[in-house]
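Hi R.,

Quick one: here's the Dense core granule exocytosis sequence you asked about.
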Amino acid sequence: MKRLKLMASDMVQSCVKRTKSSFENWLKETRFNLELVIPRTVCVMMNVVIQAKKQSRFLCAREESENSQYRYHSDVYIFLKDVIQEMFTSFIAKLNTVLESLLSKVARYDQGSILAPMFSLRNPGTELEETYLTFVKLNLERFRAHLNEEKMKKQLIKDWYTSILTKICDWLSDRMSMALHQYQVQTLLTLAAELPQFVSEDLSSSRVIYCRTYNTVFSRLRVEDAMHKGQSIYATEDQPYPGSDGEDDEETESSDEEAFVKLETGN
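And here's the predicted structure, written out as tokens:
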């Protein structure tokens, strides 16, 4: 029995290593752009690793003997936990290269930029932000349809959503001393208005959706928008933030973390 459990643990690690290698090769070879929809096979790879971690607590169960207590491959659980974290982190980083491309295009309109006057002569329309929102929406639907573990699915979506807000916030922080172009405000304000609706069914807590980073982004864009419209910026202070009127769900950000910890520990 002991030997069988050792063999099972070795097989799980070997399977996960091969799966991770295939996942990394896919990330390296795939060009992430606005037209990309994550293949089902990638979701299958993540399902394999997540399920392996879930089952590892049975494969690595403790057994007592007269003289000692054994725990087979006690490092398997930690290994699988690290693999999942690495896969999520690298995956989100690649997804965010699409947002970085969008922000680099919007940056052409920066105040003081040599090319800004030329770009300002034409109306860029709303195609860029609409295409990006479609990219996010389609891939969120793919995650919901093909990732099996509910808690890990929500964790991936939460991490991606949070990273999007952080990147936009950092982009705005780099331009704290300059006024934004109307097109920049229009593009980012559209993203800030639509993205929370996309994740509302996955992140039921408004404290997570309308977090401090979101409020920072929305506040800056709202002030810039008021300035372009010739409105008083002080009037925007009296306007409520999105999500601030409704009652918050019982599930808070801390409870999300607790749920994730429970999944990690298997309790």
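The mean pLDDT is 82.

Cheers,
M.
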